[in-house]
Every structure is written in structure tokens, then in C-alpha cells.
Amino acid sequence: DSGVTQTPKHLITATGQRVTLRCSPRSGDLSVYWYQQSLDQGLQFLIQYYNGEERAKGNILERFSAQQFPDLHSELNLSSLELGDSALYFCAGGGKGGELFFGEGSRLTVL
Amino acid sequence: DAKTTQPPSMDCAEGRAANLPCNHSTISGNEYVYWYRQIHSQGPQYIIHGLKNNETNEMASLIITEDRKSSTLILPHATLRDTAVYYCIVRLRRDSSYKLIFGSGTRLLVRP
């Protein structure tokens, strides 16, 4: 158990819809990272927040957005969903040694 | 971040040591080598990291060559549950404020 909590674990929705994925990092971790992993694809870095501020951006689509709240939990918002957005979405928190601790992911299926 | 090169797949027998190589010939002096693994579709799991000295923890050992251009992750007694994709990543260690970029990794199959 990494201590990073992601909800929901599974989500099925239709094209054009909007969903919100939630992540709670370990207590005291200031960083939150979001990754996307499509079927048989590698882990793609989306975005990172550090203590409420955006720190780094990866291959995140304009239809996607994220934020980190004062209590350090984070939400990833995915809108105008397309079939190709079906993927596992992982969130990770940062350890003091530079290691990342990942949650178990949210599996999104867009029909 | 320096680029890493790993074999796409390897296999080993259960109970034997699994030695996973990683090439990082462009590593700079202040970059660390991190290893993660991903079992099926679970969240990636941190294994170990090092700068220049060999490191060992309860999961594995990390051997870094003297010139730091390559490293080897050693699972001393592989079990079936070690079947996973193993990622070698080079990055600056900055108090977890630095993103990790995953490559394609090595798919390790542990055979009964």
C-alpha cells in the first residue's frame, strides 16, 4: 500500500461527457503527479502540482485540466471525452528521497 | 534527463537471480538512477535508487558501474510475483519536485 488514494477505481462513461478523478497523496507529500496509460502504451506524464501550484506540464490535452487544493488533494478533470481517452490514470505523490509513490489508478472507459 | 536504454524483454527461472541491465551513457554527475516496476496494470512501484555507490534494500540490489554509464538491477531470488515491467529512469533528485519520465522498460517473465 503506497498510501496514495485514487477514486474512483473504475469509471464508465460516454463520449462527450466530463469526469473528475481524485487523488489524495500521502500525508505530508506536497507534490502530486498525474500520468496516463492507454492500453499497451507506456506511462505518459500529464502534469505535476507542488503545494498548490502547477510545476510541470507534459502531454496533457487542452480538454484536460487539473488542480491541487489547499489540503493537497488533487483532481484531474477530463472533458469532451473521446474513445481514445480510455486509459488508466495514475496519480503519484513525491517522497523525500525523490521517489514517487503511485496510487492504484482510475480505469476510465469511454463508450 | 539522460536517456536510458533497456532490453525489451527478459526471462529467468524462479528462484534464480534476475539481472536487469540499463544503459545511461549520457548521465550527468548530479543525476540519480531510479528503478520502478509495474505489475500488470497496477500502479508503478518504487524499487530502489542510487547515485554512484551500489545500493541494496529488501527488494533488490542496484549496481552502478564506476563510470556511471550503466547499471544493473538484481532481484536475488526471483519469484513468480516479480513478473512485471521494470523501468530504469535517470533524473535529478530534487525533493520530489521533479517529474519522472518513463520509457518502455524491460518486461521480465519469471518462469516456474
Please tell me about this protein's structure.
The complex is a heterodimer of chains A (111) and B (112). In chain A, 0% of the residues lie in helices and 52% in strands. Chain A contains no helices and 11 strands. In chain A, the strands form 2 sheets. In chain A, strands 2, 4, 5, 6, 9, 10 and 11 form a 7-stranded mixed sheet that branches. Chain B has 112 residues and is mainly beta. Chain B is 0% helix and 46% strand.
Topology readout:
The complex is a heterodimer of chains A (111) and B (112).
Chain A: E1 5-7, E2 10-13, E3 19-24, E4 31-37, E5 44-50, E6 53-57, E7 64-68, E8 74-78, E9 87-94, E10 100-102, E11 106-110
Parallel strand pairs in A: 2-11
Antiparallel strand pairs in A: 1-3, 3-8, 4-5, 4-9, 5-6, 7-8, 9-10, 9-11
Chain B: E1 9-13, E2 18-23, E3 31-38, E4 45-50, E5 55-56, E6 61-64, E7 70-75, E8 84-92, E9 106-111
Parallel strand pairs in B: 1-9
Antiparallel strand pairs in B: 2-7, 3-4, 3-8, 5-6, 6-7, 8-9
Mean pLDDT of chain B: 91
Instruction: Tell me the radius of gyration of chain B.
Output: 13 Å
| DSSP strand tally of chain A | 11
Regions of chain A with pLDDT < 50 over 5+ consecutive residues?
A: none
Supply the number of helical segments of chain B.
0
Oligomer: heterodimer
| Strand order, largest beta sheet of chain B | 1-9-8-3-4
Strand content range of chain A: over 45%
Q: Give the terminus-to-terminus CA distance of chain A.
A: 31 Å
Q: Ranges of chain B with pLDDT <50 over ≥5 residues?
A: none
Spell out the helices and strands of chain A N to C: EEEEEEEEEEE
Shape of chain A: globular
Radius of gyration of chain A, taken over Cα atoms and rounded to an integer in Å: 13 Å
Q: Give the CA-CA distance, first to last residue of chain B.
A: 37 Å
Keywords:
heterodimer, A: 111 residues, mainly beta, 7-stranded mixed beta sheet, 4-stranded antiparallel beta sheet, globular, B: 112 residues, 0% helix
